[in-house]
Specification:
The protein is an alpha/beta fold and 390 residues long. It is 51% helix and 11% strand. The chain is built from 14 helices and eight strands. The structure holds fe (ii) ion (FE2). Fe (ii) ion binds next to helix 6 and helix 10.
Length: 390
């Protein structure tokens, strides 16, 4: 029997090489006054950026621009909202990586009331979002966070007292996700690696999650297959459009999966490592993926209390292995070995490269969660896996 499940709203999805050319007409279907957020890397690609802006300006009555240079902070969102609150914007468009897409999502949510975002952040603010927002179109230029399909925007404050917290409401799922893999061809190699590992982590954590369903499993598996085919190719040759398409598809699937099945221990540690130590989100995922899955697998094998997750670990190993007649145990270990190989091949840094030492482990664990991880890792298990990557 199919277990009960719920799927939250999805954006209208436009996935095609060259789909950026539909952006102006899509935007106009929501209104003529546009606010466009983008990152510096796209602006630096003059040919692409000029084409996009010319087509938007030709088809709209007013187009306002704002640049998002870092992970969005509460102050950044509030400034953009205050600058554009009186403009009666019809549509917010964000074209960029995960930070730009999250910024666009938060701005579209705060613009109707001219509100300050911090008041609505989970675990920080005292108010619940009411779900009102201005129509929002997300155009990813990296294959990473899947923000184009998620119901949350991550807002970051770094340093002492820092946090990474979500602004979340099911209405905040973008109205439209326009995904053009050709926009990702110029994504630098280190960002391709980190974002790609974020995608793989989200897919695998969603697949193994205690909240996974038949439907999220189908999407997660389809995304994992795409990443398995193409992560290394996209990393080695950014111009490989087929590989970029696979990664863009994997990222989209990961956003839908994580919104509906939740995530695991790596995403339970990532906010702490990002806000206190400034480790980029994709790097946290990439550097911890092998060690965290090794810890979870060993935890499950020692207790043998979760057959479904162990079967899933074996399926993952089979997908990544060339051997045809291995045992379940062989494939479970093969998956972990493959993750360690990926970590090497993608040159993912260690946590110590960001100044993290063994002395920080207690602080990191005290603020981390295991989320919907199939194994409820103990503090000692979490400490051991962190130590492997310091
Ligand atoms: Fe992530």
């Amino acid at each position: 029997m199919v277990k009960q499940f719920t799927i939250k709203p999805l954006p209208s999805i436009y996935f095609a090489v060259g789909s950026i050319e539909q952006l102006a007409s899509l935007a106009n279907s929501y209104g003529k006054r546009l606010l466009v957020l983008t990152g510096n890397s796209l602006i630096n690609q003059e040919n692409v950026w000029e084409k996009i802006t010319a087509s938007l300006q030709q088809n709209s009555s007013n187009v306002f621009f704002s640049t998002v240079g870092t992970e969005p902070s509460p102050e950044m969102i509030d400034t953009i909202v205050q600058n554009h609150y009186p403009e009666e914007i019809d549509t917010v468009i964000a074209i960029g990586g995960g930070s730009v897409l999250d910024a666009g999502k938060a701005v579209s949510a705060m613009l109707p009331g001219g509100n300050s975002v911090q008041e609505f952040l989970e675990g920080v603010g005292s108010k619940n979002p009411d779900g009102q927002k201005i129509p929002y179109i997300a155009v990813p230029t990296t294959a990473g966070t899947g923000s184009e399909a998620t119901n949350n925007a991550v807002i970051t404050r770094t340093g002492d007292g820092g946090f990474k917290k979500s602004l979340r409401h099911d209405n905040y799922v973008p109205d439209a996700a326009l995904i053009d893999p050709a926009l990702m061809r110029t994504c630098p190699q280190d960002i391709t690696a980190a974002c790609g590992m974020d995608t793989l982590t989200q897919l695998v954590e969603g697949f193994l999650s205690t909240k996974a369903s038949e439907m999220t499993d189908a999407l997660a598996w389809s995304g994992i297959k795409a990443v398995q085919r193409s992560l290394i190719s996209a990393f080695q040759n950014g111009d490989d459009l087929q590989a970029r398409s696979d990664m863009a598809y994997g990222s989209l699937c990961s956003g839908i999966v994580l919104t509906n099945s939740g995530l695991g221990v790596i995403h339970g540690m990532a906010p702490v490592l990002g806000s206190l130590f400034n480790v980029p989100h994709g790097v946290v995922c990439g550097t911890l993926m092998a060690a965290a899955n090794e810890a979870s697998l060993n935890h499950l094998l020692e207790r043998r209390n979760d057959c479904e997750s162990l079967v899933k670990y074996a399926r993952l190993g089979q997908l990544f292995s060339t051997k045809e007649d291995g045992s379940a145990e062989f494939y479970q270990q093969a998956f972990i070995e493959q993750l360690y190989r990926l970590t090497e091949a993608l040159n993912l840094p260690l946590l110590s490269d960001f100044g993290i030492t063994d002395r920080d482990i207690v602080t990191i664990i005290s603020q981390s969660e295991t989320k919907n991880n199939p194994a409820a890792l103990t503090d000692a298990e979490m400490a051991a896996l962190l130590k492997k990557r310091i």
